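Lecture 7 notes: from sequence to structure.

We start with a single chain of 260 residues. Read the sequence below before looking at the structure.
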Amino acid sequence: MSDNTDHEASAAPAAFGIDIGGSGIKGAPVDLVVGEFAADRVRVPTPQPSTPSAVADAVAEVVASFQLPGELPIGVTFPAVIQHGVARSAANVDDSWIGTDVEKVVAKATGRRVHAVNDADAAGYAETLYGAARGQEGTVLVVTLGTGIGTCMVVDGTLVPNLELGHLEIDGKDAETRAADSAREREELTWERWAKRLQKYFRTVEDLVWPDLIVVGGGVSKKHEKFLPLLELRTPIVPATLRNDAGIVGAAALARRALP
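Now the structure, written as tokens:
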């Protein structure tokens, strides 16, 4: 729950990031010079059912916890394909979001300028600006291994949105049903057996997009030493560094870029 304490936002170049998930909605102002929170984040539970109006009200509650400049833009991550602010799918949120303009709904509730982006895109973009892929030229692919497989591609600093490479068909199956971290846990796979599945997945992906660097995120990236060394790829592959902060930081950075 929110502690209802007003937080001062940083005077440095900033934007506000909101990470909407199936269980929680988290937000914080972000110092875009260093890619770090300018104040402690605030979290509230995701309403159930997670309808557009209920979620937008929860977002407004998080935003109201901070003393923010009136023109500070808000970046919102959302677990869906986002095209021009509109949700085209819905993962872990109510299906009534499909076809809803996320930006308009949140803007109405908060009274602020809003930029919405897919959650994997936000996290991946943050890694290219401030994390494991900082300074990397060319094509960066960020892959989050969790309940599913989220993917983000950034080419020479430009985000290519809504890249759903977690749903590639490999051996007749949706890749994330076999190679996501949830599959490792569900099937009680050893790290070695899971790495064989990851090997096939990443080899397929690198043959399709030829990235210069692959960054692996998700909670399991904390244990990267157990599986990344088992992979034999031509592409350098490294663990993400921003972890749970990446979505908020990336959303803020993309909002500032879209809403200067």
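The chain has two domains: 7-119+245-258, 132-241. Keep this in mind for problem set 3.
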